[in-house]
Amino acid sequence: MDGDVWEFQFIYANNRSAKASVGRQQGRFIRAAHIRHCDLKRVIENPVTEDGRVDQRILELATFLIGARLPFEAADRYEYWLLDPKDCSPLALIFSCVDSSEMASFPKLTDWAALPAAVMPIETSEAERSSSYGPVNYRLERCVAERAGTKPRAQWFTRRYNESEDFPPFLVREDWENDEHRDLCRRYLHRQAPRLLMLHGVIPEERRRMELAARANALDVARFYPLYPEIADNDVMDKIRIEARLRLAAGETSYAMGRRDGVLYQ
User: Fold this and answer.
1) Could you give phi then psi for residue 9, rounded to 5 degrees?
2) Please, are residues 54 and 62 in contact by the beta-carbon 8 Å criterion?
3) Which residues contact residue 174 at a Cβ distance below 8 angstroms, ignoring those fewer than 6 apart?
4) What is the H or E stretch that residue 7 is in?
5) Domain map (residue ranges) of the chain
6) pLDDT for position 72
7) Whole-angstrom Cα distance, residue 49 to residue 182?
C-alpha cells in the first residue's frame, strides 16, 4: 500500500472447478490481510501459525516484497473511463487493470466513486457547515454523475502514455463550467494530492502543481513518498518532508493501521 504496510489480496482463479460460480470465477480481488514490511522477514523465518503452515505462495510473495524496489513501474494499461456525453471523452476513471484478460471480470458500471470522506476528510467552511452541506467528496461525486448525463456511458481504453493521448492527469476532469463545481473539484484533488503524486506519466508542470497542493498534508506525503516515481520540485518536497519528520517526532500519526485509503478506494 505504501511500502511500510502491504495489503495482501487474492482472486479466485479462472480454472476453478465447474461447480464454482461464474461470479466467483470472474470476481475482483478480495482483501485478505495487512502486514507491515518489518514483519515480512518474521513470516518467512517462522512460516507456521496456529492454523498450520503458511501457504507457499504467501512466502514467495513475502520474499518478493522484502527485495522489492519502490516505486514499481506503471503496469495498468487498460482503463475504464466514464465518458463526457458532449464528446465521449474521458470524464472520470472507474477501473484499471494490467492484463486485457481481466477486463471481462469487472462489472459494467457507469458510476464514479470519490474517495470516501471517512478515509479522506476535506475541510469545509463555516457557511457550508451551517447550511448542512454534505462532504466535498460526495458533492463532487454528484457533479460527475450529473455531467455524465441521464444515460451515462463508460468505455475501456488502452493507454500508451504518449503526447497524442488526452486523459485527465489526475483521474477526473477539471474543466468545469460552473464555479462551484470547479471549486469542489479543486478542493478534492488538492486534498488527494499526496496520493495523486504516486501516479506515473504526469508531466512536470502538473506534478509540480500537485506537489504545491500537497504541502497542506505533509504527513500523507511522508507516508506515500517512497512510491513517487518523480519529483518536479525538490525544494518543495524537501520542506514538506522536514515538516513531516518534525510532526512525527512530536507524536503525530499519519494514518491508522488497517485502513484502506490508497489512491483508489475499492
Assistant:
1) -130, 160
2) no
3) 168, 182, 185, 186, 189
4) strand 5-10
5) 5-66, 78-249
6) 85
7) 52
Q: Which three cell numbers stand for residue 83?
A: 465518458
For the chain, give the mean pLDDT. 86
CB-CB neighbours of 15 under 10 Å: 7
Residue 264 pLDDT class (50, 70, 90 cuts): very low
**CA 92/CA 80 separation, integer angstroms:** 9
Q: What is the predicted pLDDT for the residue at 120?
A: 92
Cα separation, 215 vs 165, in Å, equals 29
Question: Residue for cell digits 482483501?
Answer: 31
For residue 199, which of 174, 167, 158 has the smallest C-alpha distance? 167
Kindly state the cell numbers that stand for 167: 486523459
Q: Per residue in 115-125, pLDDT tens?
A: 999 989 999 99
Mean pLDDT for the stretch of residues 240-253: 94
